[in-house]
Amino acid sequence: MSKNMTEENKAELEAENAEANAEAQDAEIVEGDDTNNEGLNSKIDYEALLAKETEAREKAEKAAADVAFKLREANRNKPIEGVEDDDNKPLTVKQLQEVLAKERQETQKQLQEAQADKLAGDLTESEPEKRLVMEIFKNRTFPAHLSLSEQMEEAYAIANVKKIKGENSELKRALLGKKTLSNS
Q1: Which of 10, 17, 71, 138 would you call most buried, defined as having the most Cβ atoms within 10 angstroms of its Cβ?
Q2: Taking residues 51-72, what's their average pLDDT?
Q3: For 32-92, where are the alpha helices, taking DSSP H only?
Q4: From CA 76, how far away is CA 184, in angstroms rounded?
């Protein structure tokens, strides 16, 4: 049984690595060219960015599923000593607690996602932008110390990095122009 657990751990690690690689590729796509300051003058194509984010997530999920499938197929052919048919056994207290804990986690995740959706609606100006922010929120792993609103703000910043950089550079130019303006 411990042999199966280590192989499952390997599958989880490989799945996480595949997801991390997809997120790294996606971060490169979102960041783009730093010298381009068109963010203030042109509209951001949220639909295209959403499609790229969704594609990266689906690619990572597919890679993780493929790895898990291959491991299950490899384990299926190996006989396991001392293991009987688990379908006919009654649940133990520990197994029931694990099932209930998973159920609570899923419920908590759904509640958090509903709250995140409301926060995304408050932060964004359009529906495509909101969907992009939500997709980025779902695809990222944030530090545990961040509150939900801080996580949503980070997702918003990732979605609008070009726009924010453009506004920042425009404000810098305006301040510089204000300092050099003569009053005579």
Answers
A1: 71
A2: 90
A3: 46-76
A4: 86
Residues 91-145 have pLDDT tens digits of: 899 999 999 999 999 999 999 999 999 999 999 999 999 999 999 999 999 999 9
Run of H or E residues at 111: helix 93-123
Distance, in Å, from the CA atom of 148 to the CA atom of 27, rounded to the nearest integer, reads 21
The encoded tokens of residue 52 equal 């790229």
Q: Per-residue b/e over 33-70, b at no fewer than 16 CB within 10 Å?
A: eeeebebeeeebebeebbebbbebbebbeebbeebbee
**Percent of the chain as helix, strand, coil, to the nearest 5:** 75, 0, 25
Q: One-letter amino acid identity for 78? A: K
Residue type for position 150: E
